[in-house]
């Protein structure tokens, strides 16, 4: 199977502060991969290093076999990588439409319009709110907008950081299902999630981070079914 992302021995953090202590992880084309782990173990930092927003210190990051370690964010976007941050992922003082337009600042007008149409098809609720201020959206609608905004650049690899945080169970399920649907459009998914059970139930594989390292990885179903992992990491039982 072709790997869209292959990370080996990744060390990184913030300037000289090291948070990630040698991460090995891959995502096959078309896969949905979930990262879980306790607070402060480096999940967000990992996505930020991948997206050029935190410091790459050591190790390799291959995207479709090309080494993109330490690349700038704009070059990563051009290569088809998009990222939805854990916090502050929309501009509340702009309208929904303006938020989407901001996601396609590098696109031609024609491409921008077709990308916005595609986003509306995925989240029909947003289409009805196009001219409303993003500040007026509910928590779930904001996450949908943040995901739509990331999709405007037409990515093939989407990095998402806790897209269901603080949402009701109904919205959590809807968001994870929508993310899973993106695979039909040829988008591979790498997701950090606090609702481990929900996300792993849709994922191909999972990684458990602990202390800036991969403590365990494997088939998502096996992780869900493993009583030791369930007790220790997931609080599932
Ligand atoms: N901008 C920053 N500068 C310095 N250290 C930071 C910065 N952001 C995060 N850290 C530190 O990096 C470590 C890992 O944080 P990170 O946000 O990656 O954890 P996380 O696994 O995403 O946690 P959570 O589940 O709470 O979102 C923490 O010790 C945190 O204090
Ligand atoms: Mg985090």
Question: How would you describe what is shown here?
Answer:
With 237 residues, the protein is an alpha/beta fold. The protein has a domain at 3-87 and 156-234: Rossmann fold. The protein is built from ten helices and ten strands. The chain has helices at 43-50, 73-78, 96-102, 109-122, 124-127, 139-151, 169-181, 196-202, 220-225, 227-234; strands at 3-14, 17-28, 32-36, 55-63, 66-67, 81-84, 157-161, 188-192, 205-210, 213-219. The protein has a six-stranded mixed β-sheet with strand order 6-7-8-3-9-10, with helices on both faces. It has a four-stranded antiparallel β-sheet with strand order 2-1-4-5, with helices on one face. A hairpin with a 2-residue loop joins β9 (205-210) and β10. α3 (96-102) packs parallel to α6. The longest helix has 14 residues, at 109-122. It is globular, with a radius of gyration of 17 Å. The model has no long low-confidence stretch (mean pLDDT 92). It binds adenosine-5'-triphosphate and magnesium ion. The site of magnesium ion has 4 residues, from α1. The site of adenosine-5'-triphosphate has 12 residues, from β2 and α1.
Would you summarize the structure shown here?
36% of the residues lie in helices and 28% in strands. The chain has 237 residues and is of the alpha/beta class.
